[in-house]
Amino acid sequence: MNKIVLLPLLLVLGTHTYAQTIISGKIRNSETKEAVPVVSVKVKNSLQGDYTNDQGQFKITLQQALPITLVITSIGFESKEVTVNNNQPLTIELQPASILGKEVVVNASRFVQKKIESPVTVERISNKEIIQSPQPNYFNMLQGLKGVDITTSSLTFTTVTTRGFNTSGNTNFTQVVDGMDNQAPGLNFALGSAIGLTELDVDNLEVLSGASSALYGSRGLNGTLVMTGKDPFKYQGLSVQITQGVNHIKKGNSNDPMGPSPYYDWTLRWGKKVNDKFAFKINAQYTRAKDWSANDTTNTNGLGNSKTDPNYNGVNMYGSKTSVDINPFLQYALMNNPGLAPIIDPLLASPSNYVARTGYPEHGYLDENASLFKTNVEFRYKIRPTVEAILSGTYGTGNAVYSNDTRYALTGYKIGQYRLEVRGSQWFVRAYTTQENSGNTIIAGPTAQLINEAWKPSFVESTGEGWYPEYTSALLQALATGADLPSAHNAARAFADQGRPEVGSTRFTQLKDSISKIPTSQGGTLFLDKSKLYNAEAQYNFSEMLKVLDVIAGLNYRLYKLDSKGTLFPDHNGPIHVAEYSAYLSMGKKLLADKLRLNAAFRYDKNTLFGKPRVTTRASAVVEVAKENYIRFSYQNAYSFPSNIQSLQSTLVDYNSYASGGSDRLLNGEYKFTQYPPYLLSSVQEYQQTNDPTKLKQFSFNDIRPQSVDAFELGYAALIGKRVLIDVLGYYSTWKNFIGYVNVANTPGTNNPEAFKDHSTYMQYNIAYNGAEAVNTYGYAASVSVELPKNFMAKANFSSDFLQNKNNSQVNNFNTPNYKFNIDFGNAGLGKKQLFAFNTTLRYRPAYFYQIGFASGTVQASTVIDGQVSYKFREIHTVVKLGATNITNKYYRTGFGSPAIGAMYYVTFAYNVF
């Protein structure tokens, strides 16, 4: 009996011992002998394996008998197979290898494929490239990619796009972070790095140029940025990066009113694989510095300056948008004192004499303390070796400024994004929510106008007093004493401005704070936006099931809860709910001995604001014409529903001016355009100057509709001699029902054109609407990467974008130079020990025209050089980097009305960065 019991017990113990056989070891670089992290160590023909940690170590608990074969792979090294006959610790060396042409992308067609074989143009940045970059913020690296444009509105707010349509707050460019749409729920534009990945948690970035709606949904017409964070099962250990720098190196530059100021950026990441089933990561990043200042003094009302034009309104002067024709005040003065006729009659010979209130500069007015704090926590649990559950939360808060219809200073904004996902090797189910709080927002234009009205009203009809009556009286007095007209205007302004609170004074701050704390719906300038987004989606890859055809299908549901308390949307009576339903199908097939790959994708989208659903299609072909030489062709017919902002925005952006969506709910509902017709603002201004009613041109309006684009692209990519990678492309697109913006005005309460003579009696609107003409865009681009001996690398790219048949009545936001180029040169490891490294970049942009809601003009040409040199202390896993952006300190802008960007010099200490 005892033998019968003992036998199964021995079998169990034997099985247990067998299951606990552990293979461990360390992977190192064969040339430098340093540990190599994030190396995949897999048991051949098995699901078992591990990734090396930050010390290059791995450990595998075997589920099979020895001997086994380990398959070892890592980007930048030759793959290797090692036979293991016992459980003694291993030391394995990997030979460095070229990575050109071997980069893998996932998001070009949702299938894993080499970048060189992609059916559409896709640019990729790896975490190793981020480490080598001279840019202290990885997000700014994107501006060096082929065909990419950016607008920097603030040190912590950068907007990215491709194919020319470039503006701060671009709603036609999609940003995806770990599968989550990174848009602000209310404003609908991508939030840049505000809630993106922290510096140390980026695995890779992929930029899809041009229309990508077939796979990523409505509003991906200008491109998509896909950001992937690091898997804590792969990237383990504690990493710390500290950057200390200085910006505003003035040197007498008139573009920068500040002196040298410190820049701080501190980032931490901790990834931990607790066991084979559970891992987590914790990320935090804090950035703080004095922001760049927007101080363009170009007069938007004419050619003069503040001393020569009484109607002066500088691009970045706020408050001077208030402009009134003083002829009625002159006529009143003449009526009361006919003896003034010799002075007044010459003035009244002009149909109008417009005078603007005195504006305030941005410096000292808007908060210049730029800051960003973001944190992320993620837990991963492997239900089975191929099934994983992920729970993550990301939170960001800070201060930033962005440009749109005016400049907006966002102080203490808060964004949260939370995700639950379960994924297998062929499928995923994901749900997430994005929640925003606009914090305390200063809307630069109307806040300054209301400050002017608070300390001295422009005109009080009941008493006849005010700034303009005082100005007119002082003007006449100066002329009567013999002053010339320009001097008289300057004297009149000085008189009327007596008692005007200066920027930074106690009185000014009190007025600004009180006005900015009153909601826009109650006559102030405060946003109360707490909109939310809820999203659920699922995807399945049927390729293994079907065998003969690669097929991926997915479903997506999204709900926007627009909640601004009437300050951003017409939601006075409660939140507005907007839902979107989507389904997509992507298919691929290899033919002709795998030399030809065909892909097709279809997407169905329905938005509850619009009656008809839309179908997006994409077809592509990639043919290998010679070994590692590929020609690609793609066509996409993409639709985009107007964003919530383009449909429903109703925001005060100046004292009597609104940024407006183009839905009938607003045009006929809120603004009563049928009852009080709108006229083109340019024609109203012409009428004011000439007093000729025939100059007025009525604006024909319609309910806003979805826009579409037919996009074609032809490209060629090749790897030559394993050391040279080239990529060239050309594209052509036709846009229908293109959504742009138009400035109009009406006179609520009356249809009498005489009302347009008084600036305070009519309302202005910057309205999103569909242009009737078909708009064409086209361009071409080329890039070359050369891997040189001894770890040297050189890169260059050139791109060009053009707009045809634009609707001149629209602000189209096609803000890009006709051509631009970038050059990179660096070394990832100099010398025998490869301890030194450096990288330099050069970006050139010729002058180009830039349109934005509050101003349009020329952005001057710029040549920007960035550089860094670093040294690696291998024994303590530390890198010290000395770097600078815009080394020459020649200030430049990336958008009209945006800040002038000078140099920043910095030192970075990075521990365990890989």
From TrEMBL:
Classification via Pfam families: CarbopepD_reg_2, Plug
Membrane topology summary: Multi-pass membrane protein
Signal among keywords: yes
MF terms in GO: siderophore uptake transmembrane transporter activity
Location within or outside the cell: Cell outer membrane
PROSITE patterns cross-referenced by the UniProt entry: TONB_DEPENDENT_REC_3
Family annotation (Gene3D superfamilies): Carboxypeptidase-like, regulatory domain, TonB-dependent receptor, beta-barrel domain, TonB-dependent receptor, plug domain
Keywords from the named record: Cell outer membrane, Membrane, Receptor, Signal, Transmembrane, Transmembrane beta strand, Transport
Domain TonB-dependent receptor plug: start-end pairs: 115-224
UniProt superkingdom: Bacteria
UniProt GO BP: siderophore transmembrane transport
GO cellular component: cell outer membrane
Record family assignment: Belongs to the TonB-dependent receptor family.
Protein name: TonB-dependent receptor-like protein
Organism, scientific name: Chitinophaga skermanii
Lineage of the species this protein comes from: Bacteria, Pseudomonadati, Bacteroidota, Chitinophagia, Chitinophagales
